């Protein structure tokens, strides 16, 4: 069993509160051993910030079984029969939900240059280590808005890697010179049918016409994306952006799904 110190465990599990509903919508089931008793965490004597009310709750108790919050009560909660229970006294502290709504899990742990020039195996290992640290900081879920994150998501969902739940967007679909064009100067000019390294690893896809935009977006759905974002503008001002007509095509593909 993965060991956490009391403070980290309190923080990480407590932050699940506002995301309990989302946990049930997770696309890949958690892997559990059929004969193993479920792990349970009982957090007692905490005040809960639920993300919508301006007021903290009165002193409350939260029971987490497996990866789902089973009960929230102002009165003491009995331990579930047969569960491996960890009991935490919150000491009147605050529990609150945290979700990172815009991140790039595969690109945040090392430099962008390292992502573009390193072996993808090294990038995956760095991202796995960073995912564990992000969970320990209290982020139980993230919306990943671009990058080859499907393998990391699968590893986390299956219990192979410790990290937050990931709603992936897949490769960044970009026009030449746009927000997601990460090619190095040595990779220019482009040649028909030749993909750059960042395209080959699924970090980005170049699409310069309507048909290409539709195809690349559909490919991301084929890879089971759960989130999407369309960029119309970016900084600095000289950065080329996708035209409104092609971005509308991308949105239409998303809506059709």
UniProtKB/TrEMBL annotation:
Residues 98-221 form the Amidohydrolase-related domain. SUPFAM superfamilies: Composite domain of metallo-dependent hydrolases, Metallo-dependent hydrolases. InterPro entries: Amidohydro-rel, Metal-dep_hydrolase_composite, Metal_Hydrolase, Metallo-dep_Hydrolase. Residues 1-25 form the signal peptide. One of its GO terms (molecular function) is hydrolase activity, acting on carbon-nitrogen (but not peptide) bonds. Keywords: Hydrolase, Signal. The keyword Signal applies. This is Amidohydrolase family protein. It comes from Undibacterium piscinae. The lineage of its organism: Bacteria, Pseudomonadati, Pseudomonadota, Betaproteobacteria, Burkholderiales.
């Amino acid at each position: 069993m993965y060991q956490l110190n009391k403070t980290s465990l309190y923080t990480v599990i407590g932050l699940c509160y506002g995301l309990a509903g989302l946990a049930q919508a997770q696309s890949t089931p958690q892997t559990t051993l059929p004969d193993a008793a479920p792990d349970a965490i009982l957090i007692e004597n905490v005040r809960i910030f639920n993300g919508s009310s301006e007021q903290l709750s009165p002193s409350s108790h939260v029971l987490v079984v497996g990866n789902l919050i089973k009960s929230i009560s102002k009165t003491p909660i009995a331990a579930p029969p047969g569960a491996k229970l960890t009991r935490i006294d919150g000491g009147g502290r605050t529990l609150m939900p945290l979700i990172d709504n815009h991140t790039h899990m595969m690109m945040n742990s090392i430099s962008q240059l390292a992502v573009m020039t390193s072996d993808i195996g090294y990038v995956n290992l760095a991202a796995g280590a960073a995912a564990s640290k992000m969970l320990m900081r209290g982020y139980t879920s993230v919306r990943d808005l671009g990058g080859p994150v499907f393998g990391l998501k699968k590893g986390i969902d299956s219990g192979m890697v410790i990290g937050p739940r990931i709603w992936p967007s897949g490769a960044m679909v970009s026009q030449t010179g746009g927000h997601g064009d990460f090619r190095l100067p040595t990779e220019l000019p482009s040649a028909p049918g030749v993909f750059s390294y960042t395209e080959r690893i699924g970090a980005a896809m170049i699409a310069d016409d309507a048909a290409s935009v539709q195809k690349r977006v559909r490919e991301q759905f084929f890879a089971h994306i759960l989130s999407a974002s369309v960029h119309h503008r970016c900084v600095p001002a000289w950065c080329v952006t996708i035209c409104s007509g092609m971005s509308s095509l991308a949105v239409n593909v998303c809506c059709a799904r």
